[in-house]
Design a protein that fits this description.
Layout lengths: L1 H9 L1 H12 L11 H17 L3 E5 L6 E6 L7 E7 L19 E4 L5 E4 L7 H18 L5 E7 L9 H7 L1 H4 L3 E4 L11 E6 L1 E10 L5 E2 H4 L6 H11 L21 H10 L3 H5 L15 H6 L3 E9 L9 E2 L2 E10 L5 H15 L5 E10 L2 E2 L5 H14 L4 E5 L4 H10 L3 E4 L14 E3 H17 L3
Parallel strand pairs: 3-6, 3-7, 7-17, 8-16
Antiparallel strand pairs: 1-2, 2-6, 4-5, 5-18, 8-15, 8-17, 9-13, 9-14, 10-12, 11-13
Length: 458
């Protein structure tokens, strides 16, 4: 172990060089113009895995390729499944980036901390390579890995993951394992590791309100013609009450209350509302009353407007009543909330508000339930101890506001639980301009995975 960890330290420059190669690939899955780049990333990862002893394949799908690789050591050692995604978010608005998003670099902060900058650095290429670099160092030392490992890397996580469930169903036998690991989550604090035990589900909808058959002069038709923007804003404003609660019928069905024990554990982490909100220039959480900001993001359901459009938006002014307005709306789910019931309830809510002489159109962008990991899983204690040793601090058990649908797919189709370990931080600007990843997170992430893989050996 000591020798391998020393090798992680000495080979860090080479690890960074490989990470930068991967970060330069513009694998934006949401934009079809970058399909070749997604394929390039998949091929790069396949070659990488073959170099460290895996049997790897790029499987074509109706969307982006999926990389599946296996290293089988012995039938008497555990088999784990590692999941990550090589696709990244679009870089818009490009004007807000201080670097070229696909020309990664390392910058030093005023306090001397070194930061990796570039799209995908934290979500999820840097996270993937913490695991793969750990495997590389172990393989280079021993010519084999301590346990059986299957690696599944997809290229559509950032655009809905539409083709992954079908792939899992088709390759169930190859994906059979004892437990899966997902590296796409945060640390508890920049110096304290975390195991994420709960992730929220997601319902994503676009609603389009159609009014008149063309844009209208607001002087000639004002008050007489329905305005789709008025209707849309009425829908949005009606979705929360003055207590911050969501007003959909039966929305809170299946939402568990936070136990005093869990609340006490989270309070030990020391995060308060200011820790979450002050760095982004805010002070007051607008959600449900009597819940701290961290509780609202980790274990309470939410509703957000992710995008809205309608009417004239160019420079200057144009006095019109638009013929159409639209909004992209998402609900984050917890506990046993049913995403399909909530989607139906939302559509009924909207239809009840839209006037009869207008028309509403719905587009679905996915629906997935929340998932929780059993803390009784005996492997969690081993993983926790390994993280405790590396970070020299007690590992926190946390929730996540994010939705990671693959966790539910693994439970549903493979009957396995997932342990979520990530080394990014909330200020890493994932999905935003100037995405970053702390060099310390990358380095100690590799060391953490080395410890975890050996902790799982017996």
């Amino acid at each position: 172990m000591k020798t391998i960890l020393q090798e992680v330290d000495t080979s860090l420059p080479a690890s960074l060089k490989r990470l930068f190669e991967l970060l330069r690939i513009q694998s934006i899955s949401a934009d079809s113009r970058y399909s070749n780049e997604c394929e390039k990333a998949a091929v790069w990862l396949k070659k990488y895995l073959e170099e460290i002893g895996f049997k790897a394949q790029c499987h074509l799908t109706k969307g982006q390729p999926i990389v599946l690789a296996q290293s089988f050591v012995h039938k008497n050692v555990p088999t784990i499944l590692f999941y990550g995604h090589y696709d990244v978010q679009p870089v818009d608005p490009i004007t807000l980036w201080t670097i070229n998003p696909f020309e990664p670099c390392i910058r030093e902060t005023a306090t001397g901390e070194k930061i990796i900058h570039g799209r995908g650095a934290a979500d999820d290429k840097g996270q993937i390579l913490t695991f793969l670099e750990a495997c590389r160092v172990i393989f280079n030392q021993n010519r084999s890995l301590p346990i059986n490992i299957t690696v599944l890397l997809e290229g559509e996580e950032e655009s809905g993951g539409e083709h992954l469930p079908e792939f899992i169903a088709r390759y169930k036998e190859q994906l059979n394992c004892d437990v899966s690991f997902i590296c796409d989550t945060d640390m508890a604090t920049p110096t304290r590791a975390a195991i994420t035990a709960m992730v929220r589900g997601l319902v994503s909808e676009e609603i389009i309100i159609h009014g008149a058959n063309r844009d209208l002069h607001s002087g000639l038709y004002g008050n007489a013609a329905q305005n789709p923007i008025h209707i849309l804003t009425q829908i949005i404003s009606s979705l929360r009450d003055d207590q911050g609660r969501i007003t959909l019928k039966n929305f809170y069905e299946g939402v568990p209350e936070i136990s005093d024990h869990v609340r006490a554990l989270w309070q030990k982490i020391g995060k308060n509302d200011n820790d979450l909100l002050t760095p982004i220039g805010l002070k007051q959480p607008p959600g449900e009353k009597n819940y701290r900001a961290i509780e609202q993001t980790w274990c309470r359901p939410s509703f957000e407007v992710n995008g809205i459009t309608g009417g004239y938006q160019e420079e200057g002014f144009k006095t019109i009543i638009p013929a159409m307005a639209s909004a992209k709306i998402s609900f984050r789910l917890v506990g046993k909330q049913d995403p399909f019931k909530i989607r139906d309830s939302f559509r009924e809510f909207v239809q009840a508000i839209v006037p009869k002489d207008c028309r509403v159109e719905f587009k679905s962008f996915g629906a997935a339930p929340a998932t929780m990991v059993s803390l009784n899983n005996p492997r969690i204690e081993r993983v926790k101890k390994a993280l405790d040793e590396e970070w020299e601090c007690e590992t926190a058990i946390v929730g996540s506001g994010s939705a990671i649908p693959v966790v539910g797919e693994f439970q549903r189709q493979l009957g396995i639980e997932s342990i979520l370990i990530g080394f990014s931080n909330p200020d890493d600007c994932i999905h935003s301009p100037n995405e970053k990843y702390n060099l310390r997170s990358f380095h100690k992430g590799i060391r953490s995975w080395v410890r975890i893989l050996y902790a799982l050996q017996n």
